[in-house]
Automatic annotation (TrEMBL):
The lineage of its organism: Bacteria, Bacillati, Actinomycetota, Actinomycetes, Propionibacteriales. This is Holliday junction branch migration complex subunit RuvA. The gene is ruvA. GO terms for cellular component: cytoplasm; Holliday junction helicase complex; Holliday junction resolvase complex. It is found in: Cytoplasm. SMART domains: HhH1. Residues 72-91, 107-126 form the Helix-hairpin-helix DNA-binding motif class domain. Homotetramer. Forms an RuvA(8)-RuvB(12)-Holliday junction (HJ) complex. HJ DNA is sandwiched between 2 RuvA tetramers; dsDNA enters through RuvA and exits via RuvB. An RuvB hexamer assembles on each DNA strand where it exits the tetramer. Each RuvB hexamer is contacted by two RuvA subunits (via domain III) on 2 adjacent RuvB subunits; this complex drives branch migration. In the full resolvosome a probable DNA-RuvA(4)-RuvB(12)-RuvC(2) complex forms which resolves the HJ. The RuvA-RuvB-RuvC complex processes Holliday junction (HJ) DNA during genetic recombination and DNA repair, while the RuvA-RuvB complex plays an important role in the rescue of blocked DNA replication forks via replication fork reversal (RFR). RuvA specifically binds to HJ cruciform DNA, conferring on it an open structure. The RuvB hexamer acts as an ATP-dependent pump, pulling dsDNA into and through the RuvAB complex. HJ branch migration allows RuvC to scan DNA until it finds its consensus sequence, where it cleaves and resolves the cruciform DNA. Belongs to the RuvA family. SUPFAM superfamilies: DNA helicase RuvA subunit, C-terminal domain (SSF46929), Nucleic acid-binding proteins (SSF50249), RuvA domain 2-like (SSF47781).
């Protein structure tokens, strides 16, 4: 996968930017906030996430790694695809998304076009335990971020084709085996064993 792109900004449109990398123009779909930081002709480096579909390869560009990680995490909720995930980051900052989910703020999430009351409640239910606390100033939210191994094992299971709900159950099932210095490889194998028994 393409983790980031560095190159000269060849063009900026309302929804995307074209970065020239080694003579090739790569189109990156970006939020308005990210596009506002880019200047045609200037050098830029954007973290990216590639979304592969049967009929397309789409590259999404981000202002920073934090925005990228929230974009990828919210897509693990059922019903949230890349376009909706990008819309969430166009309306809310990464910390805004974390705060809304951690504090059950349905009203804030429904400000995002495409998210209704039920959709917001589902996103909160599925992501509350994994989204972590806001990274910004202090923060009144008491939700502690999940252990890094949990996210790595979950991402491994998602990459193998399991859905978010099954992946979460499998991670919970092996949590007791983590110990003080968790071995992600062993935990992933244990999670796969628990899924094969289910």
């Amino acid at each position: 996968m393409i983790a980031h792109v560095r190159g000269r900004v060849a063009a900026v449109t309302l929804s995307s930017a074209v970065l020239e990398v080694g003579g090739v123009g790569l189109e990156l779909m970006c939020t308005p906030g990210t596009l506002a930081t880019l200047r045609t002709g200037a050098e830029a480096m954007l973290p990216t996430s590639m979304v592969v579909r049967e009929d397309s390869l789409t590259l999404f560009g981000f202002a920073d790694d934090d925005e990228k990680s929230v974009f990828e995490l919210v897509q693990t909720a059922s019903g949230v695809g890349p376009k909706l995930a990008q819309a969430m980051l166009a309306v809310l900052s990464p910390d805004g998304v974390r705060t809304a989910i951690a504090t059950d703020d349905v009203k804030t999430l429904t400000k995002v076009p495409g998210i209704g009351q039920k959709g917001a409640q589902r996103i909160i239910l599925e992501l509350k335990d994994r989204i972590g606390a806001p990274h910004g100033r202090g923060g009144a939210v008491s939700a502690s971020p999940p252990a890094p191994w949990r996210d790595q094992v979950t991402q491994g299971l998602l990459g193998l084709g399991y859905n978010a709900r099954d992946a979460d159950k499998a991670v919970d099932a092996v949590a007791d085996e983590a110990g003080a210095t968790p071995d992600v490889g062993s935990l992933l194998r244990a999670a796969l064993r628990s899924l094969s028994k289910a």
